[in-house]
Amino acid sequence: MACKQENREIQGKQVSVMQWTAIKALDMQVSMMNTLGETSNKFIDGTWDLMHLNFVLTNCERSMFVDLVKQCCIGARIEGEEVSAANFDIKLSGDMLLLYGIFAFVLEVNFKDFFTKGQAIQGVKNV
Length: 127
Description:
The protein is built from six helices and four strands; from the N terminus they run ββααααββαα. It is an alpha+beta fold. It has one domain (8-113). The two termini are 24 Å apart.
């Protein structure tokens, strides 16, 4: 199955996200669940808001969260330019809503189908 690419406008900027390879998704899913647990659901289904983010920030392990967000955002494209480890601060400094929007979009692109289909199999209606 080919990796899909999705595009979305976030904070007035065109953002493009390519779905991860299977091994990268597996690694990142373990990191996401270890870092966020069930609080990941709102990022994955696109319903996160600032109250949810504040809850996550006050209840997570700082270094794990920072690493997760950074690893999720690396590889995304903003206005056609790829975010890399080298330009992360240049591309995202001063716009935390863009940063968290990209983070959530990446989780959605990579995990929404998995959680939606998995819960449908179990007979659960909501993510």
